[in-house]
Amino acid sequence: MISINTGDGRTESIRIIDVDVHVHENPKEMAPYCDMPWRKSLEMMEEEPGRYIDIPGFAPSLRLDPPFPGGATARKIFTAAQMREDLDSMGIDIGVLFPDHLLTLALLPNRDYAAAVARAYNAWLIDRWLRDNNGLRGALVAAPQDPVDAARQIERYAREPNIIGVYLPTAAVRPLYGDTWYDPLYQAAQSAGLPVLLHSVSVVHPNFPFNLQDFDTALARHTLAHPFSMIANMVSMITTGVPARFPNLKIAFCEAGISWVPFVMWRLDKEYTEQRRQIPFLEDKPSTYIRRFYYCTQPVEEPDDTHDFVSMLHLFGGEDSVMYASDWPHHDFDHPNKVLQLPLSLEAKRKLMGGNAAKLFNLQD
Amino acid sequence: MAEYIVAQEGEIPDGDRRLVQVHGREIGVFNLGGKYYALPNICIHQAGPLCTGRISGTLISNTDTNWKLQWGFEGEIVTCPWHALEFNITTGQCLAFPKRRLRSYTVKVEQGQIKLVL
Ligand code: FES
User: What is the pTM of this model?
Assistant: First the structure.
């Protein structure tokens, strides 16, 4: 809860649901939860100190940039208690847990292994992070390499009280998430009433977000990695008719900010006017579906004039679909105050800071 | 104007800093080679604890370096631990935004005592 001054001498408290925070899963700790023979592999992995989302065979990473002293601080959260304390310090009531290393899960070429890692993570997350009623909720990891197994995981944990969604690893995913290959996963998520959450990360890989090696700085690669992933997968999902095939599936896009949304929306609507017959399964223009999707704020745009942010929100009805996310403890996290300080009505603030997430995740309490 | 003793000489190692509370303000007092500087511990970006960040140099590239990267300001730059905005400790200047400069407080050393002037 955060109390804010309404400007007329009163204070109001606002409940904060943070849709994206990261736990630091480590292969050795996950090993007991992993099926054989892959347990053997996880047992062998050492996390080298200083490495961040970078473990050979687990979170493969192509580190291209020479290090320099100084710069950003890498933070990791190892326990539920530590997470709770951090979220409390920012006034956050509920945090939705995502992994660190498994942000790159889609890069693992071995299907069987990727599915085993996802299963191990889900069992570990529930056992180690979601046992207490302490405001931590979790997203199941779905291995895109094996959507049928992911569907089984969703069915298995659908009634687990603190599991509230399904995380779709989006960096370098192939095929893109519009492909009917994923239909079993979407069917299961829709039946379970669990939203799917697309979340990417910077990777250098020939699949989307793709060809980022053409840039010689991490700044440039990171500028494009998340939005490229989201744009590619949203266009894929719209143009293969995911929201038409699964009308009750709730879909959310995380960690790319929101300014890409109006661009894709108008671009798709324009194409639709001319080439609709190629996607006749859509019953209305793409923007109609895009307005029903959900979006996370982080990394929140910070224009000089914050009214510009509000105008952008209105372009796609974001007041009813945009959700605060911190991305804590990552280097580009956003403190709740940054979103609370936007020139929005109290009602809109309530929606962005928690109301829209409560609607997406069916959180009554 | 008032003076506050915040440390004894020798208590803040060279190249390091100490956080002090003065008048409800949190201030970072830095020792750079025996010279002392003080900056507010609240970042201009999202109010992060900037004085607790790493102290280092930074990369420079401009006409003087013929657009080659060079390492400079060794030991003079503090990086906010939240989102890595860099500040020059000696001036409070934010390296990313030319118009943004932290206020810097006067520090005096007298009879082995480090004093903040507020
Ligand atoms: S709060 Fe200091 S860089 Fe963001």
Answer: 0.94
